Amino acid sequence: MKIRIGLLLAVFSLGALLGQDEAQFPSWMKTVGGNMGATKKAIEAKSADAATSAAKVADAFDKVHGFYKSKAVADAEQAAATAKAAAADVAKFAQAGDFEKASTAFATLGGTCKGCHEAHREKGADGSYKLK
């Protein structure tokens, strides 16, 4: 009996954790969106601030990657991994003052967005987005 109760608690706890990730997903994507513009402007201005904003994007994509991995959505998981790596590259190159390479890495980062959005998000009648 104790084992059954323990198993039920484990199952419900896992469900709550997964639900928590789903509830946090929009905030992760808003972090990405808010910092993409800042990163682009900082790269154009050749400012080391690009490293800070790109690091925030990389951190958010780390969470997005974990989310899609837990959902077993392979293409979105791969897109998030690619985006995370590209954002980390932007941060690294900007920190080193190599804004040409930072710009190239930023283009890779931005290129991951459209395909994943088309495949995995849906626009509601009110203009908001939700996962498909």
UniProtKB/TrEMBL annotation:
PROSITE patterns (alphabetical): CYTCII
Top-rank lineage group of the source organism: Bacteria
GO molecular function: electron transfer activity; heme binding; iron ion binding
InterPro entries hit by this protein: Cyt_c/b562 (IPR010980), Cyt_c_II (IPR002321), Cyt_c_prime_subgr (IPR015984)
Keywords carried by this UniProt record: Signal
Signal peptide: 1-18
GO BP terms: electron transport chain
Protein name: Cytochrome c
Taxonomy of the source species: Bacteria, Pseudomonadati, Acidobacteriota, Terriglobia, Bryobacterales
